Amino acid sequence: MKRYALLAALLAFPASAQRPMLFVSNEGSRSVTMVDAVTKRVLATIPVGERPRGIQSSPDGRRVYVALSDDRPNAQSGRDAIAVIDVATRRVVARYAGGTDPEQFAVSPDGSRLYVSNEDAGTASATNLRTGRTIATLVVGIEPEGVGMSPDGRWVYVTAETSNTVSVIDTRGNRVAASFLVDVRPRAVAFSRDGRRAYVTNEISGTLSIIDIARHEVIGSVEMERGEGKPVGVVVSADGSRVYVANGGASTVSVVDPRARRVVARIRVGRRPWGIALSADGRWLYTANGLSNDVSVVDTRTLHVVGSIRVGQRPWGIAVTR
Questions:
Q1: Is 169 within 8 Å of 138 (Cβ atoms)?
Q2: 72 and 100 in contact (C-beta within 8 Å)?
Q3: Residues in a beta bridge with 217
C-alpha cells in the first residue's frame, strides 16, 4: 500500500520540479515560453506585459529572472523591471527595480545578488534579491549591454556597445575596478568555469575577444564567419574546451577551440540566433532564433541540429534550469 502511495505522490509531483526546463523570452509577443527540456514540449506561455530580453535562472532552478523594458527607451518608468517567475507555479511572483531599460544581467553564484546593465543611463545596478532593493548604481561604459559574473562571484564584466569597453566591477566593494577596450560593438560575455578566461562577442567586428581574468586583459581575438557573422550570444562548455557563439547575421553557431584560438566547426540553426544556452551536462545546446520564432536544439556530440521548438514572436534570450 505504501508503495502505491509513493508512486501516486511521485506522479502528482510537478514535472517542472523534476526535469530541466527551458525558458525563452519573446520580445515580440511579450511573453516567456516554458519548455520541458526532456520532451521538448511547450508547457506554458507566461505573459509578462513588457518587452522581455535578458533571462537567467536562479542557481537552485526554482526561479527565473527576466529583464523587462517599456516602449520608452530614454525614460525610466515603473514598467522597467526585473520580473521573477516561480517555476513551480509558472507565474510572475515579484518585480524588482532594474534601472532604466534593463537588458542583460547576471545572478551571483549564491543567488543573493543580481547585476544588470541599464543601457540608456550608462550604468550598471546591483540588486539584493532577498530584499528586492537596489544597493549600488555604478557608471560604466556608453550603452552597456552584456553582463557576466566570474564563477567565484568576485568580478562582474559589463560590456558597452558605443565605447567598445568592458567595465570590471569588484563585487566586494561594488566599485568599478578597471576598464579595457575590446573590438567594435561588444555584446555578450561568458566566463569559463575555472575562472581563468572570459569571452566577449563583438558584433560589428565579427570577432570573439579572449580575456585573461587575472589581468583583466585581452589576450586574443578569433574571427567569426569572415567577420560578417554579427556574433551576439556566447556560452562556454563546462571543461572549457569549447566556446559556442551565436552568429545572428549568418544564422549559424561557431564552435571555437579557445586554446587553439580558431573556429573548429560551424552549425546552421534557425534565423538570427541571439540567446544561447547549454544543458547542465553539456549534451544539448539551444539557440533562440529571433526571425524564425523557434529554438534550435543541437546535439553537442555530433554538432548537428536534432530538433526545433516553436515559441513566441521574436525570441531573444534563453535560460535552462538545473
A1: yes
A2: no
A3: 212
Question: CA end-to-end span of the chain, whole Å?
Answer: 33
The C-alpha atoms of residue 299 and residue 294 are separated, in whole angstroms, by 16
Q: Yes or no: say if 166 and 211 are a contact pair by the CB < 8 Å rule.
A: yes
Compute the distance between CA of residue 34 and CA of residue 45 in angstroms, rounded to an integer. Answer: 6
Q: Fill in the amino acid letter for 29.
A: S
- Per residue in 248-300, pLDDT (tens digit) is 999 999 999 999 999 999 999 999 999 999 999 999 999 999 999 999 999 99
Q: Residue for cell digits 534593463?
A: 102
C-alpha cell at 64: 527565473
8 φ, ψ to 5°? -60, -40
Residue 312 CA to residue 309 CA, distance in Å, equals 10
Distance (Å, whole) CA 93 – CA 245: 33
Contact 184, 145 (CB under 8 A): no
The DSSP code sequence of 182-250 is -SSSEEEEEE-TTSSEEEEEETTTTEEEEEETTTTEEEEEEESGGGTS-EEEEEE-TTSS-EEEEETTT
DSSP state of 17: G
Q: Do 144 and 119 meet the contact criterion of CB atoms below 8 Å apart?
A: yes
Query: What would the pLDDT profile of 295-319 be if each residue is shown by its tens digit?
Result: 999 999 999 999 999 999 999 999 9
Question: C-alpha cell of 18?
Answer: 523534476
Give the model's confidence band at 183: pLDDT under 50 very low, under 70 low, under 90 confident, else very high: very high
User: What is the strand order of the sheet 284-289 is part of?
Assistant: 273-278, 284-289, 294-299, 304-310
Predicted confidence at residue 72, as pLDDT, reads 65
The grid coordinates of residue 62 equal 526554482
